[in-house]
Write a structure and sequence with these properties.
This protein has two domains: 2-77, Roll (Ubiquitin-like (UB roll)); 86-156, [2Fe-2S]-binding domain (DNA polymerase, domain 1). Helices cover 33% and strands 15% of the residues. The chain contains five helices and five strands; from the N terminus they run ββαβββαααα. The chain has helices at 23-30, 86-93, 103-116, 122-128, 140-156, and strands at 2-8, 11-17, 49-52, 55-58, 71-73. A hairpin with a 2-residue loop joins β3 and β4.
Length: 164
């Protein structure tokens, strides 16, 4: 076992992990943050995406021991209490999900993308989300949601992420 320290959604956790454990498994199984999903477990689908030290990271490919000392934001850390992050709100308003399995990865990816590009074109949104796969719906509503969130965030000066 190895001792690691992670700041997850604003809270520091000191954990004992096996060196082979993945960050996604630690988030889900040890911290109970089940919003981070496991899909392909090969880094292709994007459902496991979290922000690690501010960068989108495939938690299914990241060994937990390599995240020692890092700050991680999961989908649960995007909302501020009962108030949804503008990207979450836009996904809800634009019906940008069906089963919801891929949604956490899209949300986290979109939050980071809008921090980097607060006024994207539809083509830029599509390119930014190309690493996230949805098997239930077309991407039109997802692109609409990201565009709506960008407009809201510019208008309201909304925060990028609000870790608890």
């Amino acid at each position: 076992m190895a001792s690691i320290s992670l700041k997850v959604n604003g809270t520091t956790h000191h954990l004992e992990v096996e060196p082979r454990w993945l960050l996604a498994d630690v988030l889900r199984d040890q911290l109970g943050l089940t919003g981070t999903h496991l899909g392909c477990e090969q880094g292709v689908c994007g459902v496991c995406t979290v922000l690690m030290d501010g960068r989108p990271t495939r938690s299914c490919l990241t060994l937990a021991v390599t995240a020692d000392g890092s700050e991680v934001v999961t989908v649960e850390g995007l909302a501020s209490g009962e108030t949804l992050h503008p990207v979450q709100e836009a996904f809800w308003q634009e019906h940008a999900l069906q089963c919801g399995f891929c949604t956490p990865g899209f949300l986290v990816t979109a939050v980071h993308f809008l921090k980097e590009n607060p006024n994207p074109t539809r083509a830029e949104i599509r390119e930014a989300l190309a690493g996230n796969l949805c098997r239930c719906t077309g991407y039109q509503y997802i692109v609409n949601a990201v565009q709506r969130a960008a407009e809201t965030m510019r208008r309201e000066g909304a925060p990028i992420a609000s870790p608890k």
